[in-house]
C-alpha cells in the first residue's frame, strides 16, 4: 500500500511548489502514512525555522569602495561607454509622452472601473457563488482577490468560495464576515468573526487555521463546517479527518462525525457525537458551560449513565477536565465500555500521565473514527471486526 | 509562488539594466542599492566571515558592472546575478578552504537592546537559525539561502545552481531536515 512514499516531495509540498493535483495526492498519502507524516512534520519545522533567517545589511561604506575601484578602472584606461540620454527624456518627446500616458490611464480606468483592485501582497482568489459579496469596501461580481488583512463579507443573498492558496477551498455562506490573516508556505490563517464557513483542506496537519472569537480551529487534514454566532460562540462539525479546537492550554480533538462547541472566555467545550441523544447532549452542555457546581455534578451523573462506546470520545476529554472522585468515575465508566491497553494503568490515567492517555486514545480512536454503527454491547466490540465500527 | 516578507521587490527594471549596459553610473548605484543586502547576506552565510563577505560582495558588483554588457536577457536578471554570486562564493570557499561556522562574531549585534521579550525571542531564534544554517554543507545551505533570502522558486534555484528541480527538492529536503534536527528544542516556539 505504501510502496510510493512521498518523502522526496515533502519540501516542495510544504513550500507550495507542487501542482494542485499532486499536492492533493501527497496530502492523501500523508494522511494515511505514519512515516511520511512524521517526515513532513520535521520538514515543516525546518521550513519554519528557515523563514527566520535574517537579511544581513551590507556595510555602509561599500558603495564608496566600489566607486573608488570603478574610478581606478577608469584611470587605468578602461573607458566607460558614453551615457546616451534616453529618448523619452528629450524635450520634443515630453508632450507626446504625457499625452499618450494620459490616454492609457484613462482607458485603463474605463476598462477596470468595475473591477476589484488586486491587493499588493499575497492574496487568495475568491469566486462569487451568489449575489455580490464585498471585499473591503468593494462589491465583487465573478471573481476577486482577498489580500492579507482584508475582510470578505456576505449578506443574506450572497455567498462565495475562496481558494486557500493551493491547499484547499473554503465556502463562505450568507451573512458571514471573514478575514485573511496570513498566508505563508508554512501557515495559512483566516479569522471568522461571524457566520458560517465550510472548509476542505488537503494539506498536511497544522497548516491551515481559523481564528474565532472563542477558539482556534487547527486543521489536521480534513473537511468541516464552522459557525460563529453573534455572541462569539461557535459550533464545529467535522465531516472528514480531524480538527483541533484550541484556546491556551485547552484543546479538543474532533474526529469526523463529531462536533464541538466553544464559548468566549471558556474556549472549546468537550467534543461529542451528535447522535448521542438529547439527554447526553444537554448534560454535556451543562457540564461544559454551566457555572453552577451542583448542576455540573448532576450533569456528570446523567452523562455517565447515557454514555455509549463511541462516547468515550467525550469521556476521554473529560478525564483532564474533572478531578478527584469525578475523574475516577469517568475512568470506571470508560473501562466498563472498553478495556485499558495492556501497558496503560489505572494509576497512570488518574494521574493524567500524558503517554498513557495518548496510548489509550490511540486505541479508542478505532471506535471513534467512521463509527456509523453503534455496538450493542462490549462483547460485540470485543469479538467483532473493529473495522465495522 | 509566495515570496517571503523579507524580500522587497527591487525597483530595477529593464531600463535600469539597459542604462547600466551603457555605463550609466547612477543606474549602477540603483542596481547596487537594490541588491547589496541580498548579495551580502548570501556571502556572509556562505563564507561565515563578514570581512571576507564584504570583499567578495565588492568583487561581485565590480564584476557585475564590467560583465553586464554580456547579459542578453535570455534568463531573468536575478537568476543571472545569483549564479554569479553563488559561483563567487564557491570560488572563495575553494580558494581558502574556509570552514564555515557562523558564530556571534559573524553576525550583526542586536541593534535594539530594549528588554522587549518578543523582540528578544525573535533575535534569539534568528541567531540560532543563522548559526545552524552556517553549519549545513554548502550544497544544502545554498538552496536554503536562495529560497528564504532571495525568495526564488525551485525552478529559479535549479537555474542558478545548474541542476535539476528534483535535485533542488532533494537538497532542500535534506536542509530542512537537518535544521529541524539541530534545532528540535525550538519546536515549542512554533
Outline of this structure?
The complex is a heterodimer of chains A (389) and B (190). Chain A is α+β, with helices and mostly antiparallel strands.
- Strand fraction band of chain A? 25-35%
Number of helices of chain A: 12
* Number of H- or I-type helical stretches of chain B: 8
Number of strands of chain B: 0
Order of helices and strands of chain A: HHHHHEEEEEEEEEEEEEEEEHHHHHHH
Mean pLDDT of chain A: 83
User: Please, what is the average pLDDT of chain B?
Assistant: 80
Give the radius of gyration of chain B: 17 Å
N- to C-terminal distance of chain A: 22 Å
- What's the count of strands of chain A? 16
Q: SSE order of chain B, as H and E?
A: HHHHHHHH
Strand content of chain B: under 5%
Oligomer: heterodimer
Classify the secondary structure makeup of chain A into a structural class.
Answer: alpha+beta
Helix content of chain A: 25-40%
Task: Characterise this structure.
The complex is a heterodimer of chains A (389) and B (190). Chain A has 389 residues and is an alpha+beta fold. Chain A has twelve helices and 16 strands. Chain A has a 16-stranded mixed sheet that branches. In chain A, helix 6 (278-289) packs antiparallel against helix 7 (293-306) and helix 8 runs antiparallel to helix 9. In chain A, 36% of the residues are buried. Chain B is mostly helical and 190 residues long. The longest helix of chain B has 23 residues, at 25-47. The two termini of chain B are 23 Å apart. Residues 1-10 and 98-117 of chain B have low confidence and may be disordered. Chains A and B meet through helix 1, helix 3 and helix 4 of A and helix 2, helix 3, helix 5, helix 6 and helix 8 of B.
Amino acid at each position: 500500500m505504501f510502496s510510493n512514499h512521498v518523502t522526496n516531495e515533502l519540501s516542495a509540498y510544504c513550500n507550495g511548489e507542487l501542482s494542485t493535483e499532486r499536492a492533493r495526492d501527497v496530502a492523501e498519502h500523508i494522511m494515511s502514512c505514519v512515516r511520511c507524516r512524521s517526515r513532513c512534520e520535521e520538514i515543516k519545522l525546518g521550513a519554519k525555522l528557515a523563514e527566520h533567517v535574517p537579511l544581513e545589511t551590507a556595510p555602509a561604506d561599500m558603495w564608496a569602495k566600489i566607486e573608488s575601484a570603478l574610478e581606478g578602472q577608469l584611470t587605468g584606461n578602461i573607458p566607460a561607454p558614453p551615457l546616451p540620454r534616453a529618448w523619452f527624456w528629450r524635450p520634443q518627446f515630453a508632450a507626446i509622452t504625457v499625452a499618450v500616458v494620459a490616454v492609457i490611464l484613462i482607458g485603463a480606468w474605463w476598462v477596470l472601473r468595475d473591477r476589484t483592485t488586486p491587493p499588493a501582497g499575497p492574496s487568495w482568489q475568491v469566486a462569487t457563488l451568489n449575489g455580490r459579496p464585498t471585499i473591503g469596501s468593494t462589491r465583487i461580481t465573478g471573481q476577486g482577490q482577498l489580500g492579507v488583512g482584508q475582510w470578505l463579507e456576505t449578506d443574506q443573498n450572497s455567498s462565495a468560495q475562496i481558494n486557500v492558496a493551493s491547499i484547499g477551498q473554503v465556502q463562505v455562506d450568507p451573512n458571514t464576515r471573514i478575514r485573511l490573516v496570513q498566508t505563508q508556505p508554512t501557515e495559512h490563517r483566516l479569522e471568522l468573526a461571524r457566520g458560517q464557513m465550510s472548509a476542505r483542506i488537503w494539506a498536511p496537519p497544522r497548516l491551515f487555521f481559523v481564528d474565532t472569537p472563542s477558539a482556534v480551529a487547527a486543521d489536521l487534514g480534513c473537511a468541516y463546517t464552522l459557525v460563529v454566532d453573534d455572541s462569539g460562540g461557535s459550533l464545529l462539525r467535522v465531516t472528514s479527518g480531524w480538527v483541533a479546537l484550541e484556546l491556551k492550554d485547552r484543546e479538543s480533538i474532533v474526529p469526523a462525525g463529531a462536533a464541538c462547541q466553544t464559548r468566549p472566555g471558556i474556549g472549546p467545550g468537550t467534543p461529542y457525537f451528535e447522535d448521542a441523544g438529547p439527554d447526553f447532549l444537554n448534560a454535556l452542555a451543562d457540564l461544559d458551560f454551566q457555572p453552577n457546581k451542583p448542576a455540573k455534578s448532576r450533569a456528570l451523573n446523567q452523562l455517565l449513565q447515557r454514555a455509549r462506546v463511541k462516547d468515550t470520545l467525550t469521556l476521554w476529554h473529560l478525564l483532564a477536565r474533572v478531578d478527584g472522585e469525578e475523574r475516577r468515575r469517568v475512568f470506571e465508566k470508560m473501562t466498563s465500555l472498553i478495556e485499558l491497553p495492556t501497558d496503560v494503568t489505572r494509576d497512570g490515567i488518574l494521574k493524567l500521565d500524558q503517554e498513557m492517555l495518548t496510548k489509550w486514545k490511540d486505541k479508542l480512536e478505532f471506535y471513534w473514527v467512521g463509527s456509523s454503527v453503534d455496538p450493542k454491547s462490549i462483547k460485540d466490540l470485543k469479538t467483532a471486526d473493529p473495522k465495522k465500527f | 509562488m509566495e515570496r517571503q516578507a523579507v524580500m522587497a521587490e527591487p525597483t530595477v527594471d529593464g531600463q535600469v539594466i539597459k542604462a547600466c549596459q551603457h555605463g550609466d553610473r547612477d543606474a549602477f548605484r540603483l542596481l547596487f542599492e537594490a541588491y547589496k543586502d541580498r548579495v551580502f547576506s548570501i556571502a556572509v552565510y556562505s563564507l561565515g566571515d563578514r570581512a571576507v563577505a564584504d570583499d567578495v560582495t565588492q568583487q561581485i558588483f565590480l564584476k557585475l558592472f564590467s560583465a553586464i554588457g554580456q547579459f542578453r536577457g535570455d534568463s531573468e536578471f536575478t537568476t543571472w546575478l545569483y549564479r554569479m554570486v553563488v559561483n563567487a562564493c564557491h570560488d572563495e570557499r575553494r580558494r581558502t578552504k574556509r570552514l564555515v561556522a557562523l558564530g556571534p562574531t559573524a553576525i550583526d549585534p542586536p541593534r535594539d537592546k530594549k528588554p522587549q521579550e518578543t523582540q528578544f525571542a525573535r533575535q534569539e531564534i534568528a541567531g540560532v537559525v543563522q548559526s545552524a544554517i552556517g553549519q549545513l554543507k554548502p550544497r544544502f545551505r545554498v538552496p536554503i539561502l536562495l529560497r528564504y533570502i532571495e525568495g526564488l522558486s525551485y525552478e529559479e534555484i535549479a537555474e542558478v545552481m545548474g541542476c535539476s528541480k528534483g535535485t533542488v527538492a532533494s537538497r532542500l529536503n535534506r536542509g530542512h531536515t537537518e535544521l529541524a534536527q539541530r534545532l528540535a528544542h525550538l519546536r515549542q516556539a512554533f
